[in-house]
Specification:
Length: 148
């Protein structure tokens, strides 16, 4: 859009609704600044939650633990029903949005991936195609088509 404010954060790519088990931890860059209490996650700092949307530029993660906006994070995605197995994808990014969703409390964490990371872009597209074939992906309109 011509004349748009370059300081405004806007979504850079289409997101697909998807539900996958996932875990998140604070990245090395901010590990000294953000620490969790013993009830927040496991001893290594990983917090379990659910991936709720995914695109080539970012993801949405639902968590019962607050993480501050701007924190560098690592996101691990797992196959359905296999949270204890090896992750199918590990992504690094920055929290660009943190919204409390209801009284649980639950937080919707919006994660932006590195802009110039082509291998991550390809891995995410491969995962979207894989889960789309399993019928567990839909775009914002409920359509099941590949986006970029």
């Amino acid at each position: 859009m011509a004349g748009a404010d370059p300081g405004v954060i806007v979504r850079r790519a289409k997101r697909f609704d998807v539900v996958l088990p996932a875990s998140i931890c604070v990245g090395e860059e901010h590990a000294d600044l953000v620490r969790f209490g013993p009830r927040a996650g496991d001893r290594s700092g990983w917090i379990e939650g659910d991936l709720i949307d995914l695109g080539t530029a970012g993801a949405g993660f639902m968590s019962t633990t607050f993480i501050p906006r701007g924190a560098k994070v690592v996101l691990r995605l797992f196959d359905l029903g296999n949270r204890d197995g090896d992750p199918i994808l590990e992504l690094k990014g920055t929290l660009v949005r943190v919204v409390m969703t209801d009284r649980r409390p639950a937080y919707l964490l919006g994660i932006g991936f590195d802009q110039d990371n082509t291998p991550v872009h390809e891995e995410v597209l491969n995962l979207i195609n894989r889960v789309e074939g399993a019928g567990i992906v839909a775009d914002d309109d409920g359509n099941s088509e590949r986006g970029g």
